[in-house]
Amino acid sequence: MPAMPSTVVGTRAWLVAIVAVALVVRLGVVAATPGYVPHHDDRDYDRVAWSMASGHGYPPVRIGRRRYADAYRPPLWPAALGLVYAAVGHRLTAGRVADAALGAAGAGLLAWVALRLWGAADARRAGWLAAGYLPLALVSSVLISETLLVACELLALGLALEARRRGSGRLAVAAGAATGLAALARVNGAVVLPAVAGLCGRRRAAAAIAAFARVLAPWTLRNALALHAFVPVSTETGPTLAGTYNRASMTARDAPGAWRLLRRTEYAALALRPLPPARHDAVLRRAALRFVARHPAYPPAVAWHNLWRWLDLAGLRRARFEARTIDIRDPWATLGLPFAWALAALAAAGLAAGALRGTPRAFWLAPLALLATTLPVSAETPRFRAPLDPFLILLAARALGLAASRR
Questions:
Q1: pTM, two decimal places
Q2: Which residues in the chain come in under a pLDDT of 70?
Q3: Angle at CA of residue 166, ends 164 and 172, nearest 5°
Q4: Count of Cβ atoms closer than 10 Å to residue 133 Cβ
Q5: Strand partners, 62
Q6: DSSP 63-99
Q7: Are 80 and 72 in contact, with CB atoms under 8 Å apart?
C-alpha cells in the first residue's frame, strides 16, 4: 500500500488530539456534577428516550381523559439517547457520557470546517477553542438536543464545503441528508439548508434538497398517520411562539420579551383545552400571530432584548436563571460567563479584521438564519446560543490567526 502523505497524517493527529482533549473536558464536567437530575426539557427527552428503549416507541401524551399520539419533541435525540439506554439500561450518567462524546465530536467537526475555510493553522485554533469552551461543555453535560444539533449542522456544512471543493454530487447528497438530521434534532436545524444548497452549487443543490426531504419524509409520514395532520417535524412551534408573544412577556419589567410558561400568560386557559397535539399547536400559533399583528413593534423589541440575553449581558441573576432551565447549577453558569464574553469579543474582532474575506458567502447564511430564528423567539443561554457558538469560535480563531500573521 502507498504511504499516506505526511500532511494527511499530521492533520489526523491534531484532529484526534482535539477530540480527545474535548472529550476529557466534557467528561470532567460530567464527573464534577454528579448530582444531576433532569427537571425540565431534559426530563421529557429522558422520558421519550426510555419509552423508545423499552420497545414502546414514541410515547403518547395524555390530554384530559384521552391519549393522543405525540410529536412535540423532535425524534432524533430521544432515539439516540434511547439506543444508549437500550444498551446499558436507564442510566442518566451513560446518557451524559454519550452527550459528552457528541460534544467532543462536534469540536473535531468544527476544526474540519475551519480547515476547509482557511487552512490548518486556523483549524487548529478553532479546534482548541472549541475543545476548552466551557459553555458548550456544559450544554453537552445535560440531556438536551442542542449538542446533537451542533454536530449535525457542522457535519452538513463540512460535507457541503467538501462537495464544493471536489465537485461531488454524492457529497452534496450526504450534506443534504445531514441537514435533515439537524432538523430532526431541533426544528430550526432546517434553516441551515440554504447555506448547504448554496455551498453545493446550482447543479448539486437540487440533490442536497432532495436528500434533506428524504430524511424527513419517514417521520413526516408517521406524523400524518398518527396525528392526522401535516407535521413535518414537531408540534412545538405554537407553544414556543405563544410563550414569547403574549402580554405578560411584553410588559414584564425583569425580563421583557423573554419566553414564559403558558400557564403564566393570557393563554393559560387555551393551553389547557383538551385538543389533539397538532390542533393545539395550530391554535397557539394563530394566537401568537394575532398578537404580533396587534403589536407589530414587539418582535423587534423581543429581538433586541434577546440579543442582550444571548450575549449574557442581562446580568448574573438572569444568566443563572436561564442556565437552570436546563439544570446547570449556578456556580457553573457563573464560571461560563467569562468564556462567553471573551468569545464574543474575539468574534467581533475577527469580523472587524475581515475574517469573512475569502470565504464562501453561502456559508455565512447558516449563522444568519440561526440567529434570525433565535433572537425573535427565545435566547436562553447557554442552550440556545450553542448552535451559533461554533460560528463565533470560527471568527475568534480567524481573529487570532490574522493577529499572528501581522506580528
A1: 0.95
A2: 1-9
A3: 55
A4: 27
A5: 67
A6: ETTEEE----S-SHHHHHHHHHHHHH-S-HHHHHHHH
A7: no
What are the boundaries of each domain within the chain? 6-406
Q: How far is CA 251 from CA 172, 298, 308, 310, in A?
A: 47, 10, 17, 20
Per DSSP, the three-state class of 325 is coil
CA separation for the pair 356, 350 (Å, rounded): 8
**Cis omega (within 30 of 0) for bond into 239:** no
**In contact, 133 and 392? CB cutoff 8 Å:** no
Q: How far apart are CA 273 and CA 261, in angstroms?
A: 15
In this structure, which amino acid lies at residue 151?
A
Helices and strands in the chain: count of H runs, count of E runs: 19, 2
Query: Which three cell numbers mark 228?
Result: 392526522
- Closest among 218, 154, 208, 63 to 394, alpha carbons compared: 154
Read off the pLDDT of residues 9-33 as tens digits, 9 standing for 90 and up: 678 899 999 999 999 999 999 999 9
Find the length of the chain.
Answer: 407
**Is-contact 262 268, C-beta < 8 A?**
yes
Q: Could you tell me which residues are beta bridge partners of residue 68?
A: 61
The backbone torsions φ and ψ at residue 405, rounded to the nearest 5 degrees and listed phi first, read -65, -35
Eight-class DSSP state of 327: T
Question: Tens digits of per-residue pLDDT, 116-174?
Answer: 999 999 999 999 999 999 999 999 999 999 999 999 999 999 999 999 999 999 999 99
Supply the angle between the helices 146-166 and 169-185 in degrees, to the nearest 10: 170
